């Protein structure tokens, strides 16, 4: 080739590389000659040569595209394009058909996904409402919560007189409102039901920036006792209890036996100060008499801190400026009322920063975190388990995959089959899971909260919750569909098409992936089993706690005089009639009266202890108290350690006396014999009360509490809500019906607010712990089941792939027991890795997995050994069953099948 032609030939060869080798070989010389001829005839100089080459490149590109299209069409025929919408639809239809042909697997997978996604969706709805939903106020950033410090120096509730002082502060707040929750008995249609109420001031809605849905709110005149009894029903109660009856506005209802006029329906989608806790009625301050005489006197007592205060900031005022104003107010109150408010601060929080109360929010976040962690672990466990099952199914489908790829299906198309199958299972299971979450949340809405909480809960599946559930569906489908999809990309086509069964599923990558999934399942299972074991251990320990009282053969009845319309001056005579009638019931050997039961949360009193200076510097302490009759200690078997008990003369005496428990004596005076020492109410500098006796400790509020001081005051007259306790000679439950009947004979209006045995009361105090332990146990059982199924499936699959090898071993004389040990032993390393990972995570989270109330040692060797034993037993059974089946293989059949 001449020197003039050589550059053109090199350039032509470069352009021709766009063509397939076959085309260059067949038509390269002809095309080169045609291009050389065009260049020889070119008379337009350099630009003419450029045009010839441009034409050649264009022609080459078009010819190359046409050639590629014709070749792909010849190979694919009428098959949908790789990755096109037709291919996606076809793959999904194929995945659905395969799942329908495997109903047991499909239904099991859907059930597992439904439980996992349902639990996570329900918990997300609860946690969202508890922690992440802003309060339903107008311009919530302008609303603040104001708290007077309690006697321990922490933010607490506010006294109503202090609230009035806050309303007098000018230039800081647009509106300041107070509210106080309570419970009442609603009488309607010959029935009585407990409802949650809040006493609120007239400027409550102005402070939170809302308007009533119907009717009107309270006016300023209703902030004065004696203006009448008025109520506003919440939208939730209006719809659920009264069928959204519009005629309810202006009608009268009976609360605690007193007529109350309903003047409106509260703001839409507003449940009250508790947020997710539903308030049924708001009552005006003029209606506090519905709550009893103590509610009325409380309005003037600076020592009673019963109210929560909310305020709306004035334009341009910051939270810091509001805090400065409240600091100044606290200083003025300390000067004016040194006995009550010296050392007591006032703290301002932005309302959006408070979920329930500063005292409880920390525990609320911890509880939500633990609950969310548990359900996420279950989701990970379910995803890992289903990933293992799909991985095994994918290996069984290797011949099908090999044929598809041999016929020209791309790797993405094959992987999409597995991803589609996983997404279908996830979407169907997730849909059922959301229905399950809806049912659980509806069940929570019908559950009445135990004291000291009131009302019920309202959790809904809003758009955010549904989007969360949909996101879980997609994430879960991708999570347990990606493993078999990736594995399908590494299928050995030649080995599979030659039906080399020994190579199926024996690759290192596949084995590592399967083992990793098993380790994850074992680690998660260990954590859940350990958490359940700690909770169950704490629950069992609580049952062995000595409550400090003789609970055998003691029954009780609770009634309320105010709700029966019995005035305070007649309550004493009515109570004496009840005591006499109860004492006359056959089998009753003793009767006592108290304002509270052992192991029950109740009120406290602000007390000054002579000679004791509390660390908070307020000069007083909050102490639980009880009002009792003289027979109380003997009826409950509480021993008197020093001094004396109460006598009948003390009930009518005007001497100020008190009995304390041993913990109070030792904490405040450093000796068990505190007889003669003195205490007084914080608000009464001259009302010193002398200690006449010291009794044995009892559990005051809960079975798991540390030793707690308790004051016993003698009953003079009657208490509004008395617990009447009776000791019996035999089974106390046998006299419950007689107690109810005697109550009706004394006064048919008296309600039975509580009736049972003291033993059942102590058991009920553990209801929340039992529910937590039961929930954890359920999750741990589910975890064990999932892990066992996953291990059983993988071991069975591994055994199926090693049939020839196992047959050869047996033919050469290997004992069947040795085969079993070999199969189970090979899984032991994987299980051991999971146990180590799980134990490491338990060490990392420490005591967070254990209930704080019992402070159980999470790393106790006995507890850890028990959890390991349970998990190892489940894993051993899951591995042993397929291993035993492998040991029964017929060697001749195994060798022929190879």
Plain-language structure description:
The chain is α+β, with helices and mostly antiparallel strands. The protein folds into 4 domains: about 5-75; about 150-345, no CATH class; about 360-540 and about 770-895, no CATH class; about 555-760, no CATH class. It is about 50% helix and about 15% strand. Strands 3-4-9-6-8-7 form a 6-stranded mixed β-barrel. The longest helix is centred in the middle third of the chain and has 39 residues, at about 360-395. The model is unreliable at about 1-5, about 75-85, about 495-505 and about 850-855 (pLDDT under 50).
Backbone shape: elongated
Number of helices: 28
Helix proportion range: 40-55%
Assign the structural class, choosing from mainly alpha, mainly beta, alpha/beta, alpha+beta, or little secondary structure.
alpha+beta
Query: Radius of gyration over alpha carbons?
Result: 39 Å
Tell me the strand order in the biggest sheet. 3-4-9-6-8-7
The figure for the number of domains is 4
N- and C-termini, Cα separation = 63 Å
Secondary structure: number of strands: 22
Mean pLDDT: 79
Largest sheet: 6 strands, mixed, barrel
Low-confidence parts: 1-7, 75-83, 495-506, 849-856
Strand fraction equals: 5-15%
List the helices and strands and how they pair.
Layout: H1 6-16, H2 21-41, H3 45-76, H4 85-100, H5 103-132, E1 143-148, E2 158-159, H6 160-167, E3 173-188, E4 191-200, H7 204-208, E5 214-215, E6 230-233, H8 235-240, E7 252-255, E8 258-265, E9 281-284, H9 293-298, E10 305-313, H10 319-336, H11 338-341, E11 346-350, H12 358-396, H13 398-406, H14 411-445, H15 463-488, H16 493-497, H17 508-543, E12 554-558, H18 568-583, E13 588-594, E14 604-609, E15 621-628, H19 632-636, E16 640-643, H20 648-652, E17 657-661, H21 662-669, E18 678-681, E19 689-695, E20 711-714, E21 723-728, H22 736-746, E22 754-757, H23 758-764, H24 767-801, H25 803-811, H26 816-845, H27 861-887, H28 891-897
Parallel strand pairs: 4-9, 6-8, 15-20, 17-19
Antiparallel strand pairs: 1-10, 1-11, 2-10, 3-4, 3-7, 3-10, 5-8, 6-9, 7-8, 12-21, 12-22, 13-21, 14-15, 14-18, 16-19, 17-20, 18-19
């Amino acid at each position: 080739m001449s020197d003039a032609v050589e550059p053109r030939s090199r350039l032509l060869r470069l352009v021709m590389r766009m063509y397939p080798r076959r085309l260059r070989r067949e038509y390269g010389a002809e095309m080169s000659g045609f291009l050389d001829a065009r260049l020889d005839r070119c008379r337009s100089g350099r630009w003419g040569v450029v045009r010839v080459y441009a034409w050649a490149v264009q022609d080459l590109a078009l010819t190359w595209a046409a050639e590629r299209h014709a070749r792909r069409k010849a190979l694919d025929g009428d098959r949908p394009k790789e990755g096109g919408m037709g291919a996606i639809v076809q793959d999904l239809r194929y995945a659905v058909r395969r799942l329908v042909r495997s109903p047991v697997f499909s239904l099991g997978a859907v059930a597992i996904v439904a439980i996992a996604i349902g639990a996570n969706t329900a918990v997300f709805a609860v946690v969202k409402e508890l922690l992440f939903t802003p309060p339903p106020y107008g311009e919530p950033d302008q609303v603040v919560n104001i708290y007077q410090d309690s006697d321990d120096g922490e933010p607490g509730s506010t006294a109503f007189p202090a609230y009035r002082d806050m309303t007098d502060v000018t230039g800081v707040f647009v509106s300041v409102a107070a509210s106080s929750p309570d419970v009442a008995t609603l009488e309607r249609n010959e029935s009585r039901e407990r409802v949650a109420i809040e006493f609120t001031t007239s400027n409550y809605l102005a402070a939170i920036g809302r308007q009533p849905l119907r009717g009107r709110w309270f006016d300023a005149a209703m902030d004065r006792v004696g203006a009448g009894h008025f109520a506003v029903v919440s939208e939730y109660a209006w719809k659920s209890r009264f069928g959204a009856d519009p005629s309810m506005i202006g009608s009268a209802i009976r609360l605690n036996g007193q007529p109350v006029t309903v003047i409106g329906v509260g703001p839409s989608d507003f449940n009250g100060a508790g947020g997710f806790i539903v308030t049924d009625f708001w009552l005006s301050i003029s209606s506090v008499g519905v709550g009893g005489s103590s509610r009325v006197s409380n309005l003037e007592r600076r020592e009673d801190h019963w109210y929560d205060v909310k305020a709306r900031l004035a334009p341009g005022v910051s939270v810091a400026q509001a805090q400065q104003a409240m600091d100044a107010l606290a200083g003025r109150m300390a000067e004016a009322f040194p006995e009550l408010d010296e050392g007591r601060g006032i703290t301002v929080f932005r309302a959006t920063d408070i979920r329930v109360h500063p005292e409880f929010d920390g525990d609320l976040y911890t509880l939500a975190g633990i609950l969310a962690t548990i359900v996420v672990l279950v989701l990970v466990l379910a995803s890992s388990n289903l990933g293992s099952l799909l991985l095994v199914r994918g290996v069984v489908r290797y011949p099908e995959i090999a044929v598809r790829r041999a016929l020209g299906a791309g790797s993405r198309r094959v992987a999409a089959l597995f991803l589609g199958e996983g997404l279908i299972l996830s979407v169907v299971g997730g849909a059922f899971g959301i229905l399950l979450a809806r049912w659980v949340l509806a069940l929570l809405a019908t559950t009445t909260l135990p004291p000291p909480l009131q009302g019920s809960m309202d959790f809904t599946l809003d758009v955010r919750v549904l989007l969360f559930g949909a996101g879980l569906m997609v994430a879960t489908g991708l999570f347990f569909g990606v493993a078999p999809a990736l594995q399908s990309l590494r299928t050995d086509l030649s080995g599979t098409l030659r039906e080399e069964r020994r190579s199926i599923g024996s690759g290192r990558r596949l084995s590592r992936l399967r083992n990793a999934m098993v380790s994850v399942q074992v680690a998660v299972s260990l954590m859940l089993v350990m958490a359940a074991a700690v909770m169950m251990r704490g629950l069992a320990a609580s049952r062995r706690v000595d409550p400090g009282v003789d609970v055998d053969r003691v029954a009780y009845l609770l009634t309320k005089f105010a709700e029966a319309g019995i005035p305070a001056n007649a309550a004493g005579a009515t109570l004496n009639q009840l005591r006499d009638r109860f004492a006359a019931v056959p089998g009753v050997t003793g009767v006592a009266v108290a304002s509270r039961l052992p192991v029950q949360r109740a009120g406290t009193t602000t007390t000054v202890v002579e000679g004791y200076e509390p660390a908070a510097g307020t000069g007083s302490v909050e102490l639980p108290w009880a009002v009792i009759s003289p027979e109380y200690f003997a009826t409950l078997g509480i021993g008197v350690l020093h001094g004396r008990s109460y006598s009948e003369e003390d009930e009518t005496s005007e001497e100020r006396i008190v009995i304390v428990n041993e913990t109070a004596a030792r904490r405040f005076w450093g000796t068990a014999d505190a007889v003669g020492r003195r205490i007084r109410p914080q608000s009464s500098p001259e009302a010193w009360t002398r200690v006449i006796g010291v009794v044995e400790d009892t559990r005051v509020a809960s079975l798991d509490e540390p030793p707690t001081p308790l004051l016993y005051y003698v009953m003079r007259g009657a208490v509004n809500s008395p617990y009447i306790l009776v000791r019996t000679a035999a089974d106390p439950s046998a006299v419950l019906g007689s107690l109810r009947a005697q109550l009706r004979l004394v006064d048919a209006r008296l309600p039975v607010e509580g009736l049972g045995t003291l033993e059942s009361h102590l058991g009920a105090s553990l209801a929340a712990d039992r529910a937590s332990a039961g929930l954890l146990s359920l999750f741990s059982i589910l975890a064990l089941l999932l892990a066992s199924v996953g291990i059983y499936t993988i071991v069975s699959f591994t055994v199926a792939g090693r049939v020839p090898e196992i047959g050869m071993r047996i033919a050469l004389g290997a004992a069947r027991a040795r085969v079993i040990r070999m199969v189970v032993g090979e899984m032991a390393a994987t299980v051991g890795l999971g146990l180590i990972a799980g134990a490491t995570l338990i060490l990392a989270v420490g005591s967070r997995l254990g209930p704080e109330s019992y402070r159980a040692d999470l790393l106790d060797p006995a507890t850890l050994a028990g959890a390991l034993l349970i998990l190892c037993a489940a894993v051993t059974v899951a591995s042993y069953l397929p291993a035993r089946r492998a040991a029964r293989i017929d060697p001749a059949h195994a060798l022929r099948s190879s």
